[in-house]
Design a protein that fits this description.
It is built from two helices and four strands, in the order ααββββ. With 146 residues, the chain is of the alpha+beta class. It has a single domain (2-144), classed as Glycoprotein, Type 4 Pilin (2-Layer Sandwich). The protein has a four-stranded antiparallel β-sheet with strand order 1-2-3-4, with helices on one face. Strand 3 and strand 4 form a beta hairpin.
Length: 146
């Protein structure tokens, strides 16, 4: 699983290299996107098995991050079925527009068992929907500029 995360982070970093960030900023966003992709898989597996998102106290995510350099924290919040969010806090880039800020994946469960995911900025680790923090947009992939 860790090698998949590293491959995803590398692919994300390569795709982000065209954005307006320094190598540290691009690496931070790539690492965050890789962590979010891994978290999405865990949430999807739980949702598909139970047809409901677990409540926040029963998070399907691990309590600790594995070898994260720029991701300070990851949190899972179920804001009431059929919705949940996974939010990551960034650190270590030296950019006040990114450090201490949040990127998230916001899930909406559908009756057919599928999940509609939206990537975006978040105002807090418990945000239930994207918050359009536009100062972060130059550092994020287009699909996360919500």
């Amino acid at each position: 699983m860790l090698s998949i995360q590293r491959i995803a982070a590398l692919a994300a970093w390569i795709s982000l290299s065209a954005y307006a960030g320094t190598p540290a900023e691009n690496a931070a966003v790539a690492e965050a996107m890789a962590q979010l992709d891994s978290a999405k898989i865990m949430v999807e597996q739980t949702y598909r098995a139970n047809r409901i998102f677990p409540n926040s106290a029963n998070s399907p995510l691990p309590m600790q991050l594995s070898s994260a350099r720029y991701v300070a924290s990851i949190s899972y919040t179920s804001v009431g079925d059929p919705a949940a969010s996974v939010i990551i806090s960034l650190t270590g880039t030296g950019n006040q527009l990114i450090d201490g800020k949040y990127i998230g994946m916001f899930a909406a469960g559908r009756p057919d068992g599928d999940i509609l995911w939206t990537c975006g900025t978040a105002g807090a680790p418990t945000s239930g929907e994207p918050n359009a923090i536009t100062a972060m947009y130059p550092y994020l992939p287009p699909e996360c500029r919500h």
